[in-house]
């Protein structure tokens, strides 16, 4: 897709984004499949709320569980599967993880006052440019074993605010 849209020797730009629908699907699936911050960030309730019969008073601090939302089979078929195509057809697409991230901020007023809207858009554009540029520059595939066979990558979680565990390629060591 990138090779057909971007001229040889150049990098993708934000203007190319509308012509790269699969990259859009890939970005949505990356955010859904392994949220960078599984518990999102703490939020203070602006009004009393009830959740599954429990009263939560105004002013309470809550930690939205972005990972649980993104792995809920009520929202996504086969949630553990990395499958960008789930977002291809707008009529049958599953819920966008972007919507969940934006719903965690209570009101448009807070977005304007806190300047979060510009930050979300800037971060989104930056992630698009980074991912599209990496894909335009490198051939990415599964690692190979000693016999040249593809090896399924191990996906693991670790403790802490950011839950993914990074593992470098063996050629770095």
UniProtKB/TrEMBL annotation:
As for family, the record states: Belongs to the cytochrome P450 family.
Q: What is this protein called?
A: Cytochrome P450
What are the entry keywords?
A: Heme, Iron, Membrane, Metal-binding, Monooxygenase, Oxidoreductase, Transmembrane, Transmembrane helix
**Cellular component annotations (GO), alphabetically ordered:** membrane
Quote any Pfam family the record assigns.
Answer: p450
The keyword Heme is annotated on this UniProt entry: yes
From the UniProt record, give the pathway where this protein acts. Secondary metabolite biosynthesis
* The UniProt record lists the keyword Iron: yes
By its UniProt entry, which InterPro entries does this protein fall under?
Cyt_P450 (IPR001128), Cyt_P450_E_grp-I (IPR002401), Cyt_P450_sf (IPR036396), Cytochrome_P450_fung (IPR050364)
Q: Where in the cell is it found?
A: Membrane
Q: Which cofactor does it need?
A: heme
